[in-house]
Amino acid sequence: MLQELLRLVSSGGVHSLRQLAQRLGVSQPLVESMLDELVRRGYLRPMDRSSHDVCDSCPTASNCSSCHSARVWALTEAGIRIAQSQSH
Amino acid sequence: MAEHEGNTIRVALAGQPNVGKSTVFNLLTGLNQRVGNWPGKTVEQKAGTCNVDSWTFQVVDLPGTYSLSANSPEELIAREYIIKEKPDVVVAIVNAATLERSLYLVAELLPLPTPVIVGLNMIDVAEQQGLTIDPRVLEAAMGVPVVPMVAARGQGIHDLLARIEEVTCDGAEYTPNTPNIRADHVDVLERIEELIGGNVPAEYPTTWVALKILEGDQQITDMIHPRLPQEAWSEVYQIIQQHEDTCVAVAGGRYAWIARMVRAAVVKPRIGPISLTDRLDRWATHPVWGLLVLVSILALSFALTYAIGSPLQELLHRYLVQNLADLAVRALDTAPTWLTGLLVDGVIGGVGAVLTFFPILVIFFAVLGILEDIGYMARAAYVMDRFMHLMGLHGKSFLPLFLGFGCNVPAVMGTRVIESQRARLLTIIVSPLVPCTARMGVIAFLAPAFFAAPAIVSWALLATNLAVLVGSGLLLNRFILKGEQVAFIMELPLYHLPNWHTIAITVWHRLLSFLRRAGTVILAVSIVIWMLSTFPGGDPETSVLASVGRLVEPVGMWMGLDWRMMLALISSFVAKENAVATMGVLFGVGESGAGLPAILRNTLSPSAGLAFLVTQMLFVPCVSTVATIKQESDSWGWTLFSVLFLLVVSLAGGVFAYQAARLLGW
Predict the structure, then answer these.
(1) Considering CB atoms only, which of A1, A67, A72 is closest to B488?
(2) Which of the residues B258, B319, B593, B601 has an alpha carbon 20 to 30 A from that of A72?
(3) Are B182 and A88 inside 8 Å of each other by CB?
(4) B104 in reach of chain A (CB within 8 A)
(5) Which ipTM did the prediction report?
(6) What would you report as the CA-atom Rg of chain A, rounded to the nearest whole angstrom?
(7) At what angle do helices B376-391 and B289-316 cross, to 10 degrees?
(8) Cα–Cα distance between B101 and B108 in angstroms, integer?
(9) Which three-class secondary structure string do you get for B457-510?
């Protein structure tokens, strides 16, 4: 299930949780739970503002609300390797 | 059947944090509690007893853990206790409202030899969320007893005790439906079991140990390593090395199991805000309809802005700017002509023209604020990115580019999320092509001056910018990045009703920063432009500024623009709104009765107007953005390249628009 998720994501582009849940035939909370697991294991990287210092040094941070609108994750190198690994 | 001594049943209480485990523990043990530490650990241990009928239940509260891996001391304590102390039964408390997450611990508990009873807690909360779970079906699916509970109200506690008694006394065989490793790894698991078989300490189940080794569990691997013969260990080691994905196969098997359990036991899927969001998203995030929805929402936003904003803007001009100018002229009756000129033509003409933007900006910011607040903007980004992905511009750039709609400065700053230096540079170079609100404000002001259908023109201008952005991205991507593949997951927040307070604050902040610019940069540039356009003779046509402007006029000729329009374009480098301020000064808005839109309509043909709008949209960004580009790229060379690139692109765009419009007979 986790590898299927990584494979779906690694097909490129941007995926919503809803779309991933539909493709895997599971509920959205389960996808969220799996994303946390994949982050813990280092296959996904959350890209919210807390993981970068972007907003700290941005002069327009005080009147910018775009940063908070959505949580985003990206595949890590290890995640890409797992997604591409073949069943032996 | 588990063994138990006399009338005592030893119960271990397991559960993730926030599932109500402590409530259950307190209900069971009441005042008969002891608090100490787990042997050799600083983690608190709570234990207690409970006497019901002739039975004494000895309850140990295991630390709250998400799983039974060796990630934390709590998780180690929980699994060591179950394996080594062999309680008669493990009661796993799960939160029915977050079943998907809660069941992970159960998936880890089932492969252990101790019988498990699931306390399905908080079913009332789940039901409030529209989630109905059939405990009997869940029980059948998992093969272990499931007791529905509302521990906060004491419901289900007697059933739980009854089921504990049943499990420990009736001698039925314990055959839970355990998670399986992913099918393509079954033979690897079997091989590991063969290799370690006979060398596993008696209390540990062999299959469980094999699974933990495959999962990369350091503690279990360290325990097994010295017990294995050298050849067996090297093969185990080799298998782990060869299969980087085994840990994913093991954990993935648990998630597949959870998915099966949830699918079986959840009777009614969630309703309410979640499914409303789902229904809306079916349209809003659809690859085709989503784009259409986005396009329509943008067109509507523009239409609304113009329908309400433009008449207000005219009123503001008529009553505020003109009256102010008249007042100034009368008050300065005896003052030197240069002072009147400075105030009326320079300050009122320039800053006044920009200030009449105000109503348009209020509405535009409010519409944007509403779209942001109800959760639509994330969908817009999502749809746009799918679109960009189709065109070859890949994911990681999209977050910074998305920020660019507010202001290009955070867009350039935001490229820090991109690790690849080349991808980052590419994104920095194209990010000014995302029209910021100041640019859109200028368009919102000028489009109605030239066109009867400004909403459609603005919309087309925005689309042109994005097309140029995608085109540039495509080219640079092909030649610089060579198709570096990046993938993303985005959580789209639930839609909700707008919070007017939040929106008002956002609009207010944006307006404040607009007013601040009007009072500083725009005022200063207006005065400078006025002075240069008055010096030396007082006639703008023979001024210093005119001679400078005439230097660039040959370029303007290709777009049907005279030197005044070219200077307006150049002054937008300081701040985008200056384009309007400069026009205000140079076209004499302060002293003439007509507003700037009317003057422009009489001076420029629609084709020249279009050329100006296109060039303005694609032009070099404001000086703060260029400074940020220098800071972030840390290279004057690339900063210069970015400026030149946009200069060429914008002028080419303007010339093309002018010539094309002329061919169409505009």
Answers:
(1) A72
(2) B258
(3) no
(4) yes
(5) 0.84
(6) 15
(7) 120
(8) 12
(9) HHHHHHHHHHHHHHHHHHHHHHHHHCCCCCEEEEECCCCCCCCHHHHHHHHHHH
Calpha distance B92→B116 (Å, rounded) = 7
Q: Is the peptide bond before B536 cis (omega within 30 degrees of 0)?
A: yes
Q: Which residues contact B89 (CB under 8 A, 6 or more apart)?
A: B2, B9, B10, B11, B12, B114, B115, B116, B117, B164, B167, B168
- What would the mean pLDDT of B96-118 be, rounded to a whole number? 92
Confidence class for position B166, pLDDT limits 50, 70, 90: confident
Residue with tokens 């937008």: B572
**Residue B94, both tokens:** 């799960």
Hey, what amino acid is at A25? G
| B163 vs B1, more confident | B163
For B483-640, strand residue ranges (E) read 487-491
Out of B247, B485, B490, whose CB is closest to A16?
B490
DSSP B18-54: TSSHHHHHHHHHTT-EEEEE-TTSSSEEEEEEEEETT
Q: Which residues of B touch A1 (CB under 8 A)?
A: 182, 252-253, 255-256, 259
CA distance B137 to B132: 12
| B106 in contact with A, Cβ within 8 Å | no
User: Using CB atoms, which residue from A1, A17, A78 is nearest to B255?
Assistant: A1
Q: Are B2 and B117 within 8 A, CB to CB?
A: no
pLDDT digits (tens, 9 = 90+) for A24-83: 888 888 998 999 889 888 888 876 554 445 555 555 555 455 444 567 787 887 888 888
Decide: residue B158, CB within 10 A, 0-12 exposed, 13-18 middle, 19+ buried: exposed
Question: What residue spans of B243-334 are helical by DSSP H?
Answer: 246-265, 273-284, 289-316, 322-331
Q: For A56, what's the count of Cα atoms within 13 Å in the CB-facing half-sphere?
A: 7
The answer, yes or no, to whether residue B573 has pLDDT greater than 80, is: yes
Q: What is the CA radius of gyration of chain B?
A: 36
* Closest chain B residue to the Cα of A17, Cα to Cα: B491
DSSP collapsed to 3 states, B195-241: HHCCCCCCCCCHHHHHHHHHCCCHHHHHHHHHHCCHHHHHHHHHHHH
Query: Residue B215: pLDDT above 70?
Result: yes
pLDDT for residue B486 is more than 70: no
Contacts of B492 in chain A (CB under 8 A): 16-18, 70
Q: Do B285 and A18 touch (CB under 8 A)?
A: yes
